[in-house]
């Protein structure tokens, strides 16, 4: 079965400013979504990413490694987490993405995993 990566984008600063109780409610929704994926045998893995302030970007052109602070592109939304899922096709992956709570406060990009 094909695998798809659901990439969760949102405004990182808004998330960090969210009151603790509101963030806890959002995490309950995200955990329920993961449970739903698991019950449907669609779940492969998921995870949250650390803040962009602690990220680095590496290039290694012609053996000259350079490390830069933070993400390379300036954007209004940052990649904050992912779900790796099994789905029959892109349409099914889109339906799973639409059910993800993160799609109500940010964007979910879907990329099919290219094996081989």
Q: If strands are numbered along the chain, what order do they take across the biggest sheet?
A: 2-5-1-6
Indicate the structural class. alpha+beta
Mean pLDDT rating? 92
Binned, the helix content reads: 25-40%
What percentage of amino acids are in beta strands?
35-45%
From the N-terminal CA to the C-terminal CA, the straight-line distance is 14 Å
* CATH structural class: Alpha Beta
Could you state the order of secondary-structure elements as H and E?
EHHEEEEHE
User: Which ranges are low-confidence, i.e. pLDDT below 50, for 5 or more consecutive residues?
Assistant: none
* Count of helical stretches: 3
**What name does the CATH topology carry?**
Alpha-Beta Plaits
Shape: flat
Number of domains: 1
Give me the Rg, rounded.
Answer: 16 Å
In total, how many beta strands? 6
Largest sheet: 4 strands, antiparallel
CATH superfamily caption: Dimeric alpha+beta barrel
Q: Based on the structure given, which CATH architecture is correct?
A: 2-Layer Sandwich
Molecular structure report:
With 116 residues, the protein is α+β, with helices and mostly antiparallel strands. It has a single domain, classed as Dimeric alpha+beta barrel (Alpha-Beta Plaits, 2-Layer Sandwich), CATH 3.30.70. It is 31% helix and 35% strand. It has 3 helices and 6 strands. The strands form 2 sheets. A 4-stranded antiparallel beta sheet has the order 2-5-1-6. A two-stranded antiparallel sheet has the order 3-4. Strand 3 and strand 4 form a beta hairpin. The chain starts with a strand and ends with a strand.
